[in-house]
Amino acid sequence: MFSRPPLGFVCIGFIAGLAPVPLHAWDYDGHRMVNQVALASLPREYPQFVHAVANAERLAFLAGEADRWRNVPDLPLKQYNGVDHYCDMEYIPEAGLDWATVPSFRYDFVVQFAAGRAANAKRFAPIDPAKNTDHSREWPGLAPWAITEYYGKLRAAFSYLKVFEELGTPDEIMNAQANVVYLMGVMGHYVGDCAQPLHTTKHHNGWVGENPKGYTTWPGFHAWIDGGFVAKAGIKPAELAPRVRTAEPIALAARSDGRDPMFVAAVDYLEAQHRLVEPLYQLEKEGKLGNSERPVTDEARVLISGQLLKGGQMLGAIWLTAYRNAIPDTYLRASLIRRQTGASPGSASGPVSAPPAQKG
């Protein structure tokens, strides 16, 4: 038996997930379930304001936010946001890079990958400009970097929330709490995406290239897993609730290679889901994933519901790790103390919330 937040909070959150709204990736229902599993997994030490009815619903709603950004025609936004939803893991070794050493800095990796792709151009299919209006097909996807960056944002939000709770006004505390909820919710989308094995592979929408095992090349395969299967199988939040385990923090020890330990944990998470790509294709080949006319099998149902659960458990672990590792913002704290004591000129207009910008 494990400790959980008050039962009312958990039940309200899961019941709210029953309203279907069709969107992208796991579809909205699936993403809601991932965020709700994560919320239900949090131990009692986690700030209880996240379980308030309005915040629990907002966390579930925000699970679909990153897909809503994909529904508009703005190409710069499509490029910026689109590559964060997936990572075709095979492309890293095909570019001559090694997952054991790729940098945790997004733009350092981008430079390395661009050079590696150019040096190994024969390994990559030509890009059709007509299908690349957002200039994203040059990249393998940056999901582990996005997850790591959102972890840092959430950790920062807890850092300043702790200070505002000590020295801030009620409005400052309320706004800082709202920021925490927002970051938790949006981050959940990317963690949830990567629980879907097809978000970790170049075979994301039907098998590509050599296909000796005769796996499906159907371009609707991804969409079927994301939404069609979940709907056909009738997977609901209440089904996952009894299987939720209390979140444990991710161990983040300093690394001799200088890579960010949360990034390494994110890569490990993607690699674990990537190992399910072929088993998923095999289930389709055996007719076990069902379709509009054929029912799904228990074996397939267990796999897909298990992935939704894995996504939620990983998300809960990241949320908890950010909270436990948040160090109070000392710069903000000093500013708020000066505001209280009147020691800082112009303090009546509010605290300075960041040190002066550094120039490189």
Structure description:
The protein is an all-alpha fold and 360 residues long. 54% of the residues lie in helices and 0% in strands. It has a single domain (7-330), classed as P1 Nuclease (Orthogonal Bundle), CATH 1.10.575. The protein is built from 15 helices and no strands. The radius of gyration is 22 Å and the shape is globular.
Approximate strand percentage: under 5%
Main pleated sheet: none
Helix content bin: 40-55%
Quick one: how many beta strands?
A: 0
| Radius of gyration based on Cα positions | 22 Å
CATH fold naming: P1 Nuclease
Low-confidence stretches: 1-23
Shape: globular
CATH architecture grouping:
Orthogonal Bundle
> Count the helices. How many?
15
Oligomer: single chain
Structural class: mainly alpha
Order of helices and strands: HHHHHHHHHHHHHHH
The CATH class is Mainly Alpha
Our measurement of the CA-to-CA distance between the termini, rounded to an integer number of angstroms, reads 53 Å
Mean pLDDT: 90
Total tally of structural domains: 1
